Amino acid sequence: MAGNSRYKGRRRDAPRRYNPRESERTTMLNLHKIIPFRFDIREIMTHYKVEETLASSVVASVIAKASRISIPTAKEYAREQEAAGSIPKEVTGEICELLDRYSKYR
What we know:
By secondary structure, the chain is mainly alpha-helical.
């Protein structure tokens, strides 16, 4: 019975079925470029002389939010830190530009 060993997938004349998207696509941090991103954001922090312990927590939170949630959420977090007085306005602006440069639509 050679007929039973054939591929039993979709027939050529049957229409293709597309799976519905589970969620909408959004901009997130490009994980292929995370090492240069880390380097650049740390350079920003050292250039503006942000306190080391504060800088490391802000950097970690920005990376976590940008890679897992979205770029707008990470920008919002940076602006919240600016409003709280943790980081200067110039640092927030450069972080937002950096996030735009290293973003990916996924």
